[in-house]
Amino acid sequence: MSTDLLTIALSDTRVLQAIELVWHEAALLDAKDYQTWDALWTDEGRYVIPIDPDTDDFDGSLNMVNDDTRMRRMRIERLTSGYSMSALAAARTVRTVSRFTVEDRTEDSITLKSAQILVGFKRDDQQTLAADVTHRIRDTEAGPRLDLKVIRLVNSQAAVNASGYLL
């Protein structure tokens, strides 16, 4: 993106609100505040971690995660119930989200692409995950909400250990 296009994007308050929402989401996930994180989503929101780094056909391809609202809430329940391996000794995480670009802009949504570096620590093991992330932020009566999050891990086609946290 040229400097002029970047300046235009950063002068758009909707783009800035979308970026702030992504940063807020990252802070909530690091704090394991999954209920508040879930409230950031639209009713139709999708949370996807595809294995194929180039696919956009999430329903027709294999994914690590392809959650609608019901599945996302079930995942949160498993992470917070204390009755699953992912809930026991949950990992501590710190993530950085940067390199924002505006992929699409409509009357009611902004689609951002960004880079995410996540460091997780669990049971004396530190893991670093890098991903290209797409967020579609939809304008709603309640304010901007997550409508789509696609996490394209750089190592998605390799073995990825169970993490015990949301990406």
UniProtKB/TrEMBL annotation:
Record-linked InterPro entries: NTF2-like_dom_sf, Rng_hydr_dOase-bsu
Gene3D superfamilies: 3.10.450.50
Keywords: Oxidoreductase
Family per similarity comment: Belongs to the bacterial ring-hydroxylating dioxygenase beta subunit family.
Protein name: 3-phenylpropionate/cinnamic acid dioxygenase, small subunit
